[in-house]
Amino acid sequence: xxxxxxxxxxxxxxxxxxxxxxxxxxxxxxxxxxxxxxxxxxxxxxxxxxxxxxxxxxxxxxxxxxxxxxxxxxxxxxxxxxxxxxxxxxxxxxxxxxxxxxxxxxxxxxxxxxxxxxxxxxxxxxxxxxxxxxxxxxxxxxxxxxxxxxxxxxxxxxxxxxxxxxxxxxxxxxxxxxxxxxxxxxxxxxxxxxxxxxxxxxxxxxxxxxxxxxxxxxxxxxxxxxxxxxxxxxxxxxxxxxxxxxxxxxxxxxxxxxxxxxxxxxxxxxxxxxxxxxxxxxxxxxxxxxxxxxxxxxxxxxxxxxxxxxxxxxxxxxxxxxxxxxxxxxxxxxxxxxxxxxxxxxxxxxxxxxxxxxxxxxxxxxxxxxxxxxxxxxxxxxxxxxxxxxxxxxxxxxxxxxxxxxxxxxxxxxxxxxxxxxxxxxxxxxxxxxxxxxxxxxxxxxxxxxxxxxxxxxxxxxxxxxxxxxxxxxxxxxxxxxxxxxxxxxxxxxxxxxxxxxxxxxxxxxxxxxxxxxxxxxxxxxxxxxxxxxxxxxxxxxxxxxxxxxxxxxxxxxxx
Length: 560
Prior knowledge:
5 helices; 29% helix; 31% strand; 32 strands; four-stranded antiparallel beta sheet
């Protein structure tokens, strides 16, 4: 807000289109007369200049980024800027909101201001000030002269004196908690108060500018502060205090800082005392930074302690540097330096290193020479061992070859014996099968002649025994084929029920002789005609039934 003299007191008009419980936090007026009202927790209200028109209410439901509003301003293009916490910036323009977001995330807006050049200034809590101009944002913080990155409010002020027309220009004043900064037309910030001035401790966001009187009024926790803006030469200078080296100590003994020279070749404890000299009025709170080149190239953390200690410094070239500044955000002065060195012990000199290298080389040569002699001795011993072992292996090889030759002879003899056996069995089986087939055939012919019942039984027994003997002969022949690897299964059609009945008739005499009953059965789901080797199946059934009859003394047998 601005104060002016000799103006009629405006009539206060009560607005009836806001909720009765609304907590107002910010105000701005559009060039067309509309009043924009920011609230806590209830968004923004737009009150048209025509009281007959209804108010508009904006919240997060229709475009706002947050419902708690901290600042509002109107730019030269008629856009309404809305500042909240932990979000970006929302701008109402041409009937809709558009947004500005930042790579570092949300910002906490504390104040918004549009200056006479059309720039929009955004004061934040913790990230300094942002200036929006020509579609781009420019950031300002303590590095650009701000007294603090935490901003309470922004205020346009007139800078310069009434007797200096060329200096009658508006600038931006920045209110911090314990300081005041200002920016001129070049957008360069500078402090308007000393860091420890008791009058600017505990400032509040409520401020006003009296443009005609070239002053600003700031509310504080202890009263009201009036700051003149027509005497810029009375503001604090930005020149830094110049430090001076007072004394130094080496192992507890005082010595002039510029006359330390070369110290003895051992570890030393070196300390320096210094003091920053400042001509600023009052106590400026001088801070120091120092470093010891050759030991650590980085500057120390800012401190108010005017002493630096370096215990256990080893040999080397060193340069101690110290610089100072006023307060926490002032510029640093040029560093003041003191040079000294610590001599190198003889065991760390180049000639001692060369002698050490020569001695190490001689020791290595002696070690290698001794190792070479040892390796030769081991090599000779290894060659002797290899010759002895080679002779043993040759003898073992000869024995192994003799055993292999004997095994080959035994294998050939066994193979010849097996072939002879197979040939014998094949010949014998063929020789025996010829008369057996004759016996079976003659028995069959005899059974077709008229014979009585007793003779029929005898013929049946003869035929059955002949069949069994033929099976045994076939088994002998098959075993010889199996040994020779020549056994094959035939694939020929035959009737399974007839084969089973034939096996039963073959053992009829044997079962009746032992008083047993043999029953054969073929399941209904088994096909009568099948494809396979009937001779082999007959052999299997004969063996099974024969073993069953052999080991059964009474009862009945079933085959199915």
